[in-house]
Amino acid sequence: MIRHQVLLVDDCLEDRVTYRRFLEKDSNLHYQIREATCAETALEQCDQQFPDTIVLDYLLPDADGLEFLAELKQQFPERSPSVILLTGQGNEAVALQARQLGVQAFLVKGELTAPLFREAVHHALSLSVNKAAETLSQTG
């Protein structure tokens, strides 16, 4: 059984519990879920075991989501995980910047449902798998 590596990065325990519950009730895929409450811890987790997908809160105690993504690209230039960015409110400028940094989905927490969240994760994972396959074919 394939277990997709998902890193939940959010300083709100209640939100992390919700995301975890959404994924645990997914009947189509299986996950190994890890959690971080700040950018620094998330980067350390990426160093230990790089995730397939990162579910990232835009506002973290030590960085915003865009700063985290920039640091992730700097520390791991050869890796490009799929990223889902979550925010408390929609902001077109942030969404545009996030897309330019490679974010696959930009979701507003207040509008989040389990099916929407799982669909975003499935899409992000399929992109991650395709990227990995392309990288293997280029190096092989």
TrEMBL record:
InterPro entries: CheY-like_superfamily, Sig_transdc_resp-reg_receiver, WalR-like. Residues 5-124 form the Response regulatory domain. Keywords: DNA-binding, Phosphoprotein. The modification 4-aspartylphosphate is found at D57. PANTHER family: REGULATOR OF RPOS, TWO-COMPONENT RESPONSE REGULATOR RECEIVER PROTEIN. This is Response regulator. It comes from Almyronema epifaneia S1.
